[in-house]
C-alpha cells in the first residue's frame, strides 16, 4: 500500500500548481486526501475526495482556490492549486482515507513554496 | 467546526511514562474516533494509535490510547520512553465533513 506525491515546486504568489498522487496496492474505492505541514505549524487537513469521486470537501483556508480530482484509469489523484499565497507554503502529503476517517498511509510529501 | 487542543510540548526521562492530552473544544466525540500520528524529524507522519486505542502492527505496546467521551478528551501514553520516541504527535478526529488535527505535541526525552 503506497501513495507517492509529485508536482511541487516554487511558484510566485497568485500562481498555480498541480500536485499528483499515484496510489498503489489498494483498491481505488478508498477516498484520497491531501494534508499539509507548514514550517513551524502543525498538520492541516486540506481536501478529501470520496471513493466514487463524486464528493469533495475542502478546508476553509483553501476553499474556492484548490480543486481535488481523481482518475481511476491511472490510479491517480490530483490537487489543482490556484491563486497561491505565501501561507500555502508547506509540504503537501497525499493519504489514503482508511476506516473511520484515518489517513493511512501518507506519502513522502512534496514541497510547495510560494514566494516572489 | 471544532478544534482539538494539545499541549505544545511534553518531556520525560528515559524509561518514564509520558501522556499527551487532546481535548475537543466543541461538539462531542460521540460516533467518531480519535487517531494518533507520530512524525519524526524528516519523515512523514505514521499512525501509532487508531480508533481510540488500537495499535497498528509494528508499533510497540508501550504506546496506548484512550478516549473519554464524557469529557470530550483523548490521551496518548508512552511508557518506557526512549530517544527514538522523540517526535511530534498529533491527534485527529472528524465530524461530518470536517477533518481536524490537533496542533501537535513535541515530545522531548531528556
Provide the fold topology.
The complex is a heterodimer of chains A (116) and B (110).
Chain A: E1 2-6, E2 9-11, E3 17-24, E4 31-37, E5 43-49, E6 56-58, E7 66-71, E8 76-81, E9 90-98, E10 102-106, E11 110-114
Parallel strand pairs in A: 2-11
Antiparallel strand pairs in A: 1-3, 3-8, 4-5, 4-9, 5-6, 7-8, 9-10, 9-11
Chain B: E1 4-5, E2 9-12, E3 18-24, E4 35-39, E5 46-49, E6 63-68, E7 73-78, E8 87-95, E9 98-101, E10 105-109
Parallel strand pairs in B: 2-10
Antiparallel strand pairs in B: 1-3, 3-7, 4-5, 4-8, 6-7, 8-9, 8-10
What does this structure look like?
The complex is a heterodimer of chains A (116) and B (110). With 116 residues, chain A is an all-beta fold. Helices cover 0% and strands 55% of the residues of chain A. Chain A has strands spanning 2-6, 9-11, 17-24, 31-37, 43-49, 56-58, 66-71, 76-81, 90-98, 102-106, 110-114. In chain A, the strands form 2 sheets. In chain A, strands 2, 4, 5, 6, 9, 10 and 11 form a 7-stranded mixed beta sheet that branches. The N and C termini of chain A lie far apart (37 Å). Chain B is mostly beta strands. In chain B, the strands form 2 sheets. In chain B, strands 2, 4, 5, 8, 9 and 10 form a 6-stranded mixed beta sheet that branches. In chain B, a hairpin with a 6-residue loop joins strand 4 and strand 5. Chain B is globular, with a radius of gyration of 13 Å. The termini of chain B are far apart. The chains are: A mainly beta (116), B mainly beta (110). The interface between A and B is medium-sized, with 22 and 25 residues.
